[in-house]
């Protein structure tokens, strides 16, 4: 028995950059899809443990309002001081969340959610700082945090912090800046934080730095500073991951499959759906990149499937990695393909978004109480990682596979899924989604409207942002200017 095929109208959805030949201006402008802003899908108002983290961030920031309510001065002085303090607290949270602390993961619902809150904290910190500088609160009869000279010097530094913060956050939002350059600029964000904290500490406030409120805000400044240095120095420069060796390498369409075996007793103990950060110990490839672990937790080897999506992944595809050492940090993430046994299970994947499901596939030796319906959208079946394993699981009756091959004019839509499983297959279901943003949003909304009880989403993008991805073009430009030749 082969996989069920979804038949309906062909799609013209854009997948990655079109092949070369476009001029620079067209590339810079990108496509409508590149600039699309996806309306966030509101979380379901059902208390979850993962809300604890976000609630902590919001409440610890809002509570600061009470430090400034009694401030005397012209205009909106209380609000002006509060938003200044909120900017510092949100930046501090943003650094704490960037440390990738595993103990915080359960409070936020996984590392991808922590990064989402991290981005919100960064963006709201910019907005708060903007408001603070527009209001310019002048407090009367407050307590100066340091000598007049120090205070004035720190105020000048805060002006510098404001400008650099706008520039660095602006860079973060534009995908035109390739990830590896963006990563370096992102590390500079600690400098505006330190300058802004110095201003906050030395400025005139309604309370003294040694008072309970002074200690409260001081804790944020210390936590933010420690987290920043921890991330930039310890995580990025000192900490070494578990060492693995590439046991085998295989190409499937535009994907590279790497099987890794541990080199020592230190190994990754993961659960299905988790991911890890890989550092390939080879010249030009040592930049850390996140990838889902596509093997089952009981397997001896770790499997990663890496799609050619940009400059680094292209190089991995072209390199001979057999025998190479890979340092692995993790596991991270809390993506759960399985819900309750009484629920119908829908696994919906686009392209390489199939990886979290591959590690969860039931087999004869690892049977499951549920038979998930797996909907897999691919560009073509020759370019579909894991298809052989999925077909075997389908033949053995462990899953029901529905392949949607866009080269054959098939398109994965909510209607197509409803036709395949019926409304009863979605109502009350556990839906797990991983793939391109458009596909994920479409199914989040569609299956929720049809009564899905739980929806799990895995994002393959920590950075987010707007505009076209130009990492390949920029890498080509750099290669050409260094060697005088194009990669071709
Ligand atoms: C949790 C998670 C799991 C993932 N699992 C897989 C997987 O199983 N298979 C797979 O093929 N891809 C996976 N990805 C995506 C993969 O990490 C990127 O495609 C890859 O890092 C692109 O690198 P590049 O330099 O070739 O491309 P670029 O063109 O530089 O970047 C393409 C996009 O990938 C993101 N990206 C680039 N570099 C990094 C980095 N160092 N860290 C984080 N994000 C980066 C950027 O947001 C960028 O928008 C996953 C991503 C995440 C966040």
Can you put this structure into words, describing what you see?
By secondary structure, the protein is of the alpha/beta class. It is built from 15 helices and 16 strands. Helix 6 (148-173) runs antiparallel to helix 8 (190-202). The model is unreliable at 7-20 (pLDDT under 50). The structure holds flavin-adenine dinucleotide. Residues 112, 175, 178-179, 275, 287-292, 305-307, 309-313, 352, 355, 460-463, 469, 471 line the site of flavin-adenine dinucleotide.
List the helices and strands and how they pair.
Blueprint: E1 4-5, H1 24-29, H2 51-62, E2 72-73, H3 77-98, H4 105-108, H5 111-135, E3 139-140, E4 143-144, H6 148-173, H7 179-186, H8 190-202, E5 204-205, H9 212-238, E6 242-252, E7 255-262, E8 275-280, E9 289-292, E10 302-307, H10 311-318, E11 325-332, E12 345-350, H11 355-358, E13 373-378, H12 387-395, E14 400-405, H13 414-421, E15 430-434, H14 437-449, E16 454-458, H15 471-483
Parallel strand pairs: 1-14, 12-13, 12-15, 13-14, 15-16
Antiparallel strand pairs: 2-3, 4-5, 6-7, 6-11, 7-10, 8-9, 8-11
Helix pairs in contact: 2-3, 3-5, 3-8, 3-9, 5-6, 6-8, 8-9
Bound molecules: flavin-adenine dinucleotide (FAD).
């Amino acid at each position: 028995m082969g996989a069920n095929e979804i038949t309906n109208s062909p799609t013209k959805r854009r997948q990655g950059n079109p092949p070369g030949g476009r001029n620079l201006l067209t590339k810079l402008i990108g496509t409508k899809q590149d600039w699309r802003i996806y309306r966030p899908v509101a979380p379901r108002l059902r208390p979850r443990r993962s809300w604890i983290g976000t609630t902590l961030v919001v409440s610890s920031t809002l509570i600061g309002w009470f430090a400034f309510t009694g401030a005397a001065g012209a205009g909106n002085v209380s609000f002006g001081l509060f938003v200044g303090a909120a900017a510092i607290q949100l930046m501090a949270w943003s650094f704490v969340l960037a440390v990738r602390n595993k103990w915080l993961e359960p409070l936020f619902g996984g590392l991808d959610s922590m990064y989402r809150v991290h981005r919100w904290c960064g963006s709201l910190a910019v907005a708060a700082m903007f408001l603070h500088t527009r209001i310019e609160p002048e407090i009367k009869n407050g307590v100066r945090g340091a000598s007049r000279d120090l205070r004035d010097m720190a105020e000048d530094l805060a002006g510098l912090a404001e400008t650099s913060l706008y520039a660095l956050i602006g860079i973060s939002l534009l995908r035109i800046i390739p990830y590896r350059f963006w990563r370096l600029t992102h590390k500079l964000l600690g400098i505006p934080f330190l300058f802004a904290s110095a201003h906050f500490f030395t400025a005139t406030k309604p309370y003294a730095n040694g008072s309970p409120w002074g200690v409260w805000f001081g804790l944020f400044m210390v936590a933010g500073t420690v987290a920043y240095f921890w991330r930039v120095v310890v995580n990025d420069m000192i900490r070494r991951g578990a060492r693995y060796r590439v046991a085998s390498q295989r190409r499937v369409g535009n994907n590279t499959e790497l099987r890794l075996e541990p080199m020592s007793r230190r190994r990754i103990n993961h659960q299905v759906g988790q991911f890890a950060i890989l550092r390939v110990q080879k010249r030009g490839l040592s930049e850390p990149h996140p990838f889902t672990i596509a093997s089952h937790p009981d397997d001896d080897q770790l499997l990663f499937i890496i799609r050619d999506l940009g400059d680094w992944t292209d190089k991995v595809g072209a390199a001979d990695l057999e025998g190479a050492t890979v340092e692995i940090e993790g596991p991270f993430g809390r993506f759960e393909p399985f819900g309750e046994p009484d629920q119908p299970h829908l696994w919906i994947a686009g392209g390489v978004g199939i990886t979290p499901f591959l590690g969860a596939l039931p087999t004869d030796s690892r049977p499951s109480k549920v038979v998930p319906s797996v909907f897999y959208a691919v560009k073509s079946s020759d370019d579909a990682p894991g298809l052989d394993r999925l077909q075997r699981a389908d033949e053995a009756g462990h899953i029901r596979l529905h392949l949607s091959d866009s080269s054959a004019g098939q398109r994965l839509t909510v209607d197509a899924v409803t036709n395949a499983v019926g409304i009863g297959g979605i109502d009350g279901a556990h839906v797990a989604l991983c793939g391109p943003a458009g596909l994920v949003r479409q199914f989040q909304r569609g299956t929720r409207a049809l009564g899905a009880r739980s929806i799990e989403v895995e994002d393959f993008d920590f950075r987010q942002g707007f505009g076209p991805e130009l990492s390949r073009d920029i890498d080509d430009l750099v290669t050409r200017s260094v060697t005088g030749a194009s990669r071709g």
